[in-house]
Structures are given as structure tokens and as C-alpha cells.
Amino acid sequence: MNKTFSLAVALLLKLAFCNSIVSAQTNSIDLSGTWFFQVDSLDKGVQEQWYNKKLDDKISLPGSMTTNGKGNDITVNTPWTGQIVDSSWFFKSEYAQYREPGNIKVPFWLQPVKYYKGAAWYQKNVSIPDNWKGKHLELFIERSHWETTVWVDDQQIGMDNSLGTPHVFNLTHVLSPGTHRITVRVDNRVKDFNVGQNSHSISDHTQSNWNGMVGKLSITARPALFIDDVQLYPDIHKKQVTARIKLNNEAGRDNKAEIQLFAKSNKANADGLKPLAKSIELQKGDNMVEVIYPMGNQPLLWDEFHPDLYTLSVKVKGGKETDERVISFGMRDFATQGTQFTINGQLTFLRGTLECAIFPKTGYPPTDVESWMHIFKVARSYGLNHMRFHSWCPPEAAFDAADRSGFYLHVEASSWANQGSSVGDGKPVDQYIYEESERMVKTFGNHPSFCMMAYGNEPAGKNHTKYLTEFVSYWKKRDSRRLYTTAAGWPVVPENDYNSTPDPRIQAWGQGLKSIINGQSSKSNYDWRDIISKWQHPTVSHEIGQWCVYPDFKEIKKYTGVLKAKNFEIFQQKLKDNGLDNLADSFLLASGKLQALCYKADIEAALRTPGFGGFQLLDLHDFPGQGTALVGVLNPFWEDKGYITGKEYSRFCNATVPLARLPKMVYLNNEELSVPVEVAHFGEKVLNNITPTWNIKNVSGKVLFSGQLPSANIPLGNCHQLGEIKQSLASIDQPSKLSLTIAVGDHQNSWDLFVYPATLPDIDKNIVVTQQLDEQAIQTLNKGGKVLLTLKKGSLKPEKGGDVLIGFSSIFWNTAWTGGQAPNTLGILCNPKHPAFSAFPTEYYSNWQWWDAMSNSNAIRMDSVAIGMQPIIRVIDDWVTANSLGLVFECRVGAGKLIVSGIDLVANLDKRPEARQLLYSLKRYMATPEFAPKIQVGVERIKGLSKEQFFSAAK
């Protein structure tokens, strides 16, 4: 190693604890690297003037205490930030092993490797160059969590508490040339302005309540006359942009200056734009200048199909110095037309998901554009064009990536004022929300992707409607670049630019088995027109979906960062304890197929609704908190789980989607299929001279029927009627699963249909079908006969499975957070090749033909019948309880053979073609030599399944 290189290395090592290298190009000092550090758990640092001493420890920034391995071990007394609705972990014996030191595992959310709530101190020495004398100096902390108080040497500079924007401190009058000590006290405790413990800006439910500073950390020098702020207001109709420029003149005298503006597009040779200069007179302090910049005859417009951007260079020259700001912006007009949204005058439809600050590797959001580009790319591959940031505001990089990706963003002022907080009641949070929204608009307001803003999520407070109505009115008058609503969820008020409400969706909170998907037989001909008809503004359905899937335990190894899936480890062990761990992957895939079916139903209902504004999913990817809500077809790392791809999902979720208004999904072969066909088209342009086609295939892929619908020009919008499919099903002489596919140009969508024979042949009349194990049934079994016991819904004892709340859909959100809302199950799992299904076509998972069975049944606890009993039709239980549940099982009783069905296969069969067909299929199986159950069960064990009153009157 040569001497020069050695000296350079030594200098760099010294600078790690002193000055970061000054960038001559940007006149900034990069403060990333090693800082001195000290935890202040006793809150004595201010009193003891820690800013005047060298701190004891070291830490690496950007980063958090957790990413640096700092903080306390997790215990039963960890002071979490976030509501725990189901607190049974703290006292139930089944969780006792997870409350032991060294084996702490919580089910509420992802578990950090370390935890700390309180004050912590960060300190770094900096060397200010001589040529910075007389300049404006700023300390820039891109994202802190959360409250920062800054000292330079022994002088306190100020405090900042923004949760969603950078913390910027003016150090002009305290940083003279030479060496100085910068000290930052960061406090991550909930403040007097309680934004709400579940707000994703602060909560352990998702990003974690971290302590630290991330993103860009720097001290920047600017001329004494500098550009403090630039806000751009594009006008696509006048083909111009109005620049409102705030100049700060710290020179201490009035003087003249020149403003220069010059815009360039992100496309080569697409400009023809020219510089514009303007002379101005300046006063000391703040000066506001407004300049209108012409954008040429044909400015490029920004939207989801063409995310064309411009950069505007703004220079101010005063004396010998020049300051410059370069701002990225887009020429766009995001507006409303009646009850729908428009982008640049064309109808659009919001297909959105939520981002709830879910970043398991770090526990805090990324500040690099590449990470966010990946997120938007994945979301786009699933047909989305919109993202809502639930009770938090993302960093600059997210807006940059959304600008480049053509994504429409709904952003919130860091609050979910509920569960311990409220708005409109005169508390400090009322003022904080105005201040935070002001900071957000100032910092991110030029981004074309920043299309929508709300105070936050689902507010509480006796005066919240008045407060939020005034909030909307304030912002509508102040800044017309985006649309405003009171809050995500409620209240709906006339002043809103758009409404966010949970009313239009197929399952509501607390609705249980009375929802459309669980309380009404399968179909696809409903929409939300009656719900939204009372409103004059666009409606966005709030947090639709929330359909769960079984945990993917293979995912555990992916948590290589600061947050660990200890919740998954608890659920995995429960499954193993119940002897079902070999079924984990099957449970994932089967429940995943049902989950995707539920999301398809939810999304298509929105697309079928005339005059609708759009939807916001909860969620495209999993929500790890609130008791673990596995609602994503993607995991928290934005990866698919193996049961549906973006290509498949985007068939029913996209800018253009063919739609079928099916009155039902199950038919008899003496019926005619009569299906109105329409299309939702919110694409780039009108589709001209399109001839829609359709076909119906069997499971082998053979086309049984096909046809064309009249050719048409398809305008932008939805509910464009394409015609009607009419097809006799008389030629379908076998029970069949069919697939109806409709194509509109390059866009296809499909639906599974089930057709059963209207007339069924007789089966062995010696098979006794009964709803009670009466004397006749017992005698038949004792004589070696065959019995099919089909239980009435509600007849099962609670301890035998009668307390399991079973329904067709997947679990909604989760059982921990909803208080056990029905259904508590995740569909069926079966072997479709089992001979019991020879006349009842099925996959291994729930499809529409299982709606009737799941709606007219109880799940039977298999261990209450016999240990190790494997059902013919299994019900997937909630992962929290992970019981072995069945709908249909077989066994030997006495000398005979028995099938027990938790599905009522007797009542109202004239109105239940699925039940009629399943009964036939089971009886046909029982009539064959293949019906040979191995496990012997005593008759009293079978009788003990049902409540006594159901045996009191034998027929």
C-alpha cells in the first residue's frame, strides 16, 4: 500500500466520526455514516445537556435503532404502539410457551428484533468550509420517526414533528466556518397531538414504531438570495403552467434580480420550449413571484398510459450568485364529470390498492426510487392504476416513481383518529392535521401523481363531520391541483370532491353471513347503482375485499430484516400440534383459489356499476398487523403466492374488462343460458369496429359452443351493452364444469359454470338416507347395510363443530380483529379424483358449486369422531385454531358402512340443484365396491354429534 493511499484511508476513517465529504457540485455535506448515539430512556438528556457532551455509543445512519440492533428485547411488557383487540395472548394457556423469556412470539403483527419507545440522541461533528460564510445553511433530514429537536453546539435550533415530510432546520446564524457539533434528539412516543395509535404513520401494526433518521441526511449551503419554494399549477386548456415562486432574500438589502424559467420534457425532441426571463425588485426577507410559462402548442399530457413528465428549471440571479431549483411536473387535469373521474377530460376509473407502510426488511419505508418503481410495476401487472396511502404519507421517491409509472395517488395526513383519538373536538390533533397537510402539499404538491388527499382514515369524534367538511372546503379553495375528500371511509358530505365509503362492496364489516356473497346464491348480475344514486360526486368504494388466505409458512425464511414472522411460527406450530402440518401448502393453495374468486366478484361488481368512480382494495398484498390479516394475493414483499398471477388477475381487473351478468352459476341441462354481456372500458382511446366473441369450453378445453356479438365502437366508460348470449344446455348430458370466455379485442374474461342433468337415474334403493340416526338406520347398519346420515344445519353440538361459523366466502379480514365475524373458515379442500365426486365435478378448492353446501351445513370436528379421521370433504379452519374439520366423512358402524354429511342434502332439493347432484354422486359412490371405509366408529359416537332434540322424534 503506497503512502498516499494510506493517508487517504486514514483521512476517510477520521471523517467517519467528523465531517462527511463536502460536495463541490451541490454545496452540501453528506451526513450519512457513523454517528455518536445514546439512549435516553430516563428522559434526562435535556436536563443534563447531552448536546454538550460526547455520546457514549455509535450508530449508522440512515437507519433506525432497530436496524442497528439497538433497543430492548421483546417481552410481555413491551410498550407497543397499536391497539390489540384480541388480548388473549397475554393470558391464555395455549400461548404460555410464547410468553417465556427467550421464546417471545406475538400474533398481533410482525415482531421486531429490538424495540424502543422514547428519546434517543444522535450526534455528529461537521466542518463548515470558509467559503460558506454568508450563505443560507440548512440541515435536511428526509424522514425522521419522529419528533426531532436539534442543537448546534450548545444552542437549540428548534423542533419538528412532521410524520410525512422532511425535517428542515435553518442553521444560517449558528454555523460559522469551522468545526461544530450537530445533536439531534429523536422521540418516537405518541404526542399531545394524538394522530391515533393505529395510524400507519406510527403504528407497530405495519412499519413499526421505529426511532431514527432515514433517507437523505445533509447540510446544504445556498446563496443569501435563494429559492425557498416553487409551486407549479399546470393548465392543460391554456397550455401553460403558472409558477408561484417564493424567494428568500437574506442579503439584508433591497436589490434587483432576474428569474429564468426553462422547461424540458422527458422525451427527446418533443419540446420546442424556450427560456423565459423576468426582472424583479426584491425586498428583504420573503418575496413572492408569479410567472406564467407557456408550454407550446401541443404539450405532452400526463396520465396512466402516457406518464410524460417535464422538468422546470427555475433560476434566480442576484449579484454574483445564482440559485437554481429543478422541479419535475406533469401537464394533467385530474377532475370529475358527474359521478365519475376524468384525466385530461377523458373518463377514468380508479383500480386501487392500499399501501399501509408495510416494509418488513427495514420496518420503515424506502427512500429510493427503484424500490417504489418495483412496487408500482407489480401493482400495474395486476391491472391497477391507483394507490391509497392509508393514514401516512410516503417519501419523495414514491411520488417520483408514481409520476414515472402513471399511478394516481390518494395521500393522507398521517392520521387515523379513532381508537383513542378523534378530530373536531378541539384537541391538538385538529391543528396538527392542517399543519401536516400544508407540509405535504408544499413538499409533494408538484407531483402529477398526487391526485387526491384526505385528512386520514375512518375518523371518530362528535364533531368530526363539521371539522372535516371545513378541512375539505379549506383545501378546495387553497389548491385546485387535486381532489379532496373528508376521510377514507366516512363521512360523505356535499362538499367532497369525491366520496370514500364502504357501502358498495360484497361483504361489509359485521355483516357476517348476511352479505351478498354469503347470503345470496352465486351470480354476477348485481351492482351498486342504488347505493350511489343518492350522491352527486364520484364514489370510491372503501377497502373492498379483505379476503383471507391461509398463511404461507415458506414465507417465514424471507423475513431476513428487522421484522420477523413470529406470528407465522405460532400458527405453524398450532397446525403441527393438530397433526395437519402436511396439509399446509394445500390449505394455502385451496384457500387462495377461493380468495381470488371473492376478489373477482368484488371487483367485477364495481366495474358493472354505472357512473361509479372506482375501488380501493384492502389489499393486493398482505397486511401483517391487526392480529395478522392475510388479505393479499401477494405477500408483504410484493411476490405472488402461487395460486394466481398478475396475468390471470388482470383479466378481471384492468382498464378494459369484458363482463357477464350471469343470473346464476349453476344450471340444469333443461335450461337456457341467457347472459347479457357488457364491457368496462377505461383505456387509452375508443375501440373502433370491435366484434366481441364468446365460447364455452369443457374442462378438457373442447369448445362446446361459440358465437359472436354485434360489432361496435366501444367508447370510454362502463356498462356498454354488447348483446346477449343465448344458448340451450340440452346437449350437456353429463354433470359438467364449463368455462364461459368473452373476448373484446385483446381483452378476455372468464367465468366457471356448472351444469347438471335435470333428470337423475335411481340409485340402489337399499341405501338409507336419513337426517337422524334412528332405529331404522341403526338396524340397517347392524345388518351390514349402507346409511347416508345428512345432518340438519344447526343440529351439530357446539363442541362437535356446531360453534364453527361456516360460510361460502373466505374469512373477512381476520377473526381476531373482527371479534370472530363469520365465516371463520377458508373454503373446502378435497381430492377431486375421489370416486365420491364422479357425478359432482369439482376442483380441490371451493368454486361456485360449493356455495350451497357451505351455506347449508355445519363443519364437523373430525377428532370428535375418531383421531386421525380424514374427511372426504375437508373444511379449512381459521389458522388461529387450525382444527381438523370436515363436511363429509365415511366410516364403519357395526357391520355396516356410513357416510356422514354435515351438509343438509334433503331440504328443498327442488331449489338446490347442487345439493341434489352431490347427494346423487355420494349415493352412486356408496353403490360401488369402492365404498369401503376402514375406520370403525361406535354408534354412540355418531349419535353424540347431534343435539338431543334432533333425535327425539325418529321417523
Automatic annotation (TrEMBL):
Residue intervals of the Glycoside hydrolase family 2 immunoglobulin-like beta-sandwich domain: 226-332
Top-level division of the source organism's lineage: Bacteria
Record's protein name: beta-galactosidase
Catalytic activities: Hydrolysis of terminal non-reducing beta-D-galactose residues in beta-D-galactosides
UniProt domain Glycoside hydrolase family 2 catalytic: residue ranges: 337-485
Entry's EC annotation: 3.2.1.23
Glycosyl hydrolases family 2 sugar binding domain boundaries: 104-219
Molecular functions (GO terms): beta-galactosidase activity
GO biological processes: lactose catabolic process
Organism: Paraflavisolibacter caeni
Lineage of producing organism: Bacteria, Pseudomonadati, Bacteroidota, Chitinophagia, Chitinophagales
Entry's Gene Ontology cellular component terms: beta-galactosidase complex
Keyword Kinase applies: no
Family membership noted in the UniProt record: Belongs to the glycosyl hydrolase 2 family.
InterPro entries: Bact_Beta-galactosidase, Beta-gal/glucu_dom_sf, Galactose-bd-like_sf, GH, Glyco_hydro_2_cat, Glyco_hydro_2_N, Ig-like_fold, Ig-like_GH2
Signal peptide feature range: 1-24
Coiled coil: none
Gene3D superfamilies named in the record: Galactose-binding domain-like, Glycosidases, Immunoglobulins
Keyword entries, A-Z: Glycosidase, Hydrolase, Signal
